[in-house]
Design brief:
By secondary structure, the protein is of the alpha+beta class. The chain has three helices and four strands.
Length: 105
């Protein structure tokens, strides 16, 4: 749960920095894919720069000026400790999606 909280808070922080007139969207989706359950946390922010993607889950990797650069590193560590891989599903001009991969029961 804490890993999910960090992903959502990270998205909310990015979205809060959009222009006041911008439409903001944060979506959490759960779906079954083959033998696992995927949970997506997706926003329609500006996407991540390529240089950030290379070290995305490392501490002190900042995606916005007001952050401390720990949210995604903590989310990744918590998810990994729980045996739930976390990955970057997509990033681009239309937003960013993170994916948690749960084993199906």
């Amino acid at each position: 749960m804490q890993a999910i909280d960090h992903l959502i808070l990270n998205s909310l922080q990015i979205l809060s920095q959009q222009l006041p007139s911008a439409v903001r969207s944060l979506r959490v989706q759960i779906q079954e894919v083959s033998d696992e359950i995927e949970m997506w946390v997706e926003d329609n922010g500006p996407g991540l720069p390529a240089e950030v993607c290379e070290r995305l889950f490392e501490p002190m990797t900042m995606t916005c000026p007001s952050g401390m650069g720990l949210g995604l590193a903590i989310a990744h560590a918590l998810a990994s400790a729980a045996g739930v891989p976390l990955s970057l599903g997509y990033t681009g001009a239309t937003g960013t999606r993170f994916v948690l991969h749960f084993r199906s029961l």
